[in-house]
Amino acid sequence: MTSDVLIIGGGAIGLSLSVELKLRGASVTLLCRDFQAASTQAAAGMLAPDAENIANEAMRLLCRRSRALYPEWTDKLEQLTGLNTGYWPCGILAPVYDALGITTHQSPYWLDQAAIHQYQSGLTPEVVGGWWYPEDGQVDNRALAHILWTAAQSLGVQLKDQVKVEAFLQQQGEVIGVRTNMGIIRAAHYVLATGAWSSELLPLPVRPRKGQMLRVGVPEFIPELPLTRVLFGDKIYIVPRRNRSIIIGATSEDVGFTPHNTPAGIQTLLQQAIRLYPQLQDYPIQEYWWGFRPATPDELPILGGSHCQNLTLATGHYRNGILLAPITAALIADLICHQKSDPILSNFHYSRFHSQSSTFTPMFTHPANFSQVSHSPSSPPAIEHQTNGRSTDSPLVIAGKTFQSRLMTGTGKYGSIPEMQQSILASGCQIVTVAVRRVQTQAPGHEGLAAALDWTKIWMLPNTAGCETAEEAIRVARLGREMAKLLGQEDNNFVKLEVIPDPKYLLPDPIGTLQAAEQLVKEGFAVLPYINADPMLAQRLEDVGCATVMPLASPIGSGQGLKTTANIQIIIENARIPVVVDAGIGSPSEAAQAMELGADALLINSAIALSQNPPAMAQAMNLATVAGRLAYLAGRMPLKTYASASSPLTGTITN
Ligand code: GLY
After folding, report:
1. Distance of alpha carbon 608 from alpha carbon 590, whole angstroms
2. pLDDT tens for residues 163-215?
3. Looking at ligand 1, which residue's alpha carbon is closest to its atom 2?
4. By 3-state DSSP, what share of the chain in percent is helix, strand and coil, each rounded to 5?
5. Would you say the CB of residue 250 lies under 6 angstroms from ligand 1?
6. Domains and CATH numbers, the chain
7. Which one of 93, 229, 434, 466 has the fewest beta carbons within 10 angstroms of its own beta carbon?
């Protein structure tokens, strides 16, 4: 039985949403790779929109709205389960060591030196004052996770732990299922709530930010709780629980998913904690652990729609996942159940990462005015006619990114860097493929590549040229992703996959390509595999989740034109992902012909770079690509065996 909604992720966000959706009458399945590994389990449970001193206004508002939901929300969960969440609006005290800190916070409640020591005994004498945030508080995050799981279970959410989602299966802008280690699971609507692990499934700029933590206990000889509010210092917080545990956190380390506590991490925490509240040095240590915050480049969550109409994103909550769980659940449930989008959500849409670097304005003005068209894979798309009579088209969409130009080019084989720059400009292309290996080894022509092109306008397509095996290609793809990030394309997970063991014809290895594609898709890459024009292979690559297929027209750099037309036609007919004809196109007429067949895009490098006048040829290729596309959309006249006069004969004088 398929559910209305399938949630991927068993942290606070996924679980809260499952409860909210269920309470609104939806049938819900939740898949969780490892309940214990979620950042939710690792957190301290601070509810600290004020103490965190959040600079972004929309985020501050979102956090405060969520904090305001906490009393009622935890009440409801406690009633559902009969368990205690440990919600405690205890306030947060932020002591400072020097007067400089005084100007940096916004709270109206400043306590001077005498007041803060009177208010909270046991602080180090170094404390010269502090801010008091009475509305902040805490929840016992581990208790909350357990309660959310219990509530979801009792409400009838299908909870599946230890299920690893490997890929989204997509067709024409829709998710049609997820591939998991337990087989394919389908639903009407999907939600990605996989936190720090999100980029393994979609090219989202969410990266892990490790936090190490530890817990001490109040010794038995101290009968009363010595701390009854959170202490929030510089790079340290101390969160006293009512059950006499005290959580101390947290480091913030950009080390990927490197596991374990480290001596340096724990030492820093202990030093800072003891400095702030010296008596902790004698408290028994109960536990150490670590977790991974889901960090985004702007440190704001990713909430709302995606490139697929039935996939919603709720991830990237960084330092505030526990705090934001109730508001995320409420807003996302409204969006899914009632298509009601709270205005605040517009601040957190994933497309903010694309606005500068991914949905480009073409550098060359197209002769046609393109807009929307419906595309059926087996027949040319129907053309809408605008009042000015021009035919209309939808832009090229690859892995959720939109491109106006359907011509991709490369950087190789040019006589000089200026010639390459002029040609790329004249081609109007928005995607340029770059050989990662050649950039790495500073091969001739690739030394100044980073500076030669404007990477805010050109989307980089790193390629694995020079790789003979799947393993090599996977390694180079990972380097390519780093290269794109270094050039400012944080969210660029594209890779043009080339696995080519044959040095003479440079023909790709189908088996190695499929193996590498499968692995790279799992790692969150948008994979654009270069293949021989083999329809079955194209199908298999689509099935494993590739973003496009790139069949060759004839061997790379040969300029032999379309030698594989019949097979390319079958690939186009079957594919539900864009088909990019790559390699072998030698002249604009061949480019136009490939587009007339219904190819979604072309990749042309040698035919431009090796022509007598590369910038002029680049422009010609651009025009040919546009012309071929227009012709495809227009639909050519039927072929006839016999001549048929251009001027009709009816009404003519016959004798
Ligand atoms: N919410 C505190 C932290 O992420 O360390």
Report:
1. 13
2. 999 888 877 778 999 999 999 999 999 999 999 999 888 888 899 999 999 99
3. 319
4. 35, 20, 45
5. yes
6. 1-87+138-205+299-351 (3.50.50.60), 396-634 (3.20.20.70)
7. 466
